[in-house]
Amino acid sequence: MKAAVIRAPYRFNIEDHPVPQPGPGEVLIRIHAVGICGSDVHGMEADGGQRRQPGLIMGHESAGQIEAVGPNVTDWKAGDRVAIDPQLSCGYCYACERGWKNLCENGVTIGSSRKHLTHGAMREYITVPTRQIYKLPDNVSFDEGATLDFVGNAVHVLNRSNSKLGDTFVIIGTGAIGLIAVQLAKLRGAGKIIAVDTSDSKLALAARFGADRTINPIKEDAIAVIKEETGGYGADIVLEMVGLPATYDTAVRAAKMQGTVMALGFAADQVTIPIQPLLFSEVTIVGCTGFSFEGPTVLNMIADGRIDVKPLITHEFPLDQIESGFEVLLDKKADAIKVIIHP
């Protein structure tokens, strides 16, 4: 089979590898679609590139079709169309026993080398345990199925926010996750949604999805506009989807008294939080990572049209043009949101 193997930052070899064989409780999946995530880009740069090391087959946003099942697999069969949860959990640690598989103490993510090299889906075939797969509804394409991970992350963030009908949302970062968050905030009955990004094209899409006000902080004072739009108080819920010191600073300052900042963005090892507004406004910061039990909800909402992922898929490339996929993502003029690779 063909596999894209990292040899240097943004440089890949397309190599021939043996097709893996499914073990007990596993299935062999023919990958049809795999997305390039922002963490794939940052992972080659942050931490000295430790999250995406040379020798790794990356790719954690994927969907495909079962080709074969391993011993003891009875609930799945060849031909089933599936999306893959990339978070491999052990099932027995403190977190897993409580249903927090995204916090598994022994967990790893496919396509990452953060804990140890765990090959992902930028190849023609992959084997995974059956607990990692979800059946695709008939009207959900492989490309749409490959969005499970980042859509699941957005759903998880909104679930943890405990938002109420009429709450004001500020969403900082309108990449793939942020644009899903705009849709979800609308579905949750937000009183007002304010989107912040430096890309006018992404802000236009945020407005299409339901943002009432968009702010490009290069052109406007984001905090001043947010205060003006919220009667001088700030937002009930602020979603930080970027992960830089400047954007976390904005997030805390944008929250109202006893407001909540949902922290998902992760592009820098450390960020500085403005302590005065945090303390004197009693702002709550809630950490978020990955999704947990939301997989079926995500696919059902895509299937019935409540979540629209199609406009987010802006570019598609075959596996042997994977470097072009990264070039598009790195080119600010390309207006790329989600790049899908077809092995």
TrEMBL record:
InterPro entries: ADH-like_C (IPR013149), ADH-like_N (IPR013154), ADH_Zn_CS (IPR002328), ER (IPR020843), GroES-like_sf (IPR011032), NAD(P)-bd_dom_sf (IPR036291), Zn_alcohol_dh (IPR050129)
Residue ranges of every copy of the Enoyl reductase (ER) domain listed in the record: 7-341
Keywords from the named record: Metal-binding, Oxidoreductase, Zinc
Keyword DNA repair on entry: no
A Pfam family annotated for this UniProt entry: ADH_N
Cofactor(s), by name: Zn(2+)
Family note: Belongs to the zinc-containing alcohol dehydrogenase family.
Record protein name field: Galactitol-1-phosphate 5-dehydrogenase
Record organism: Paenibacillus hodogayensis
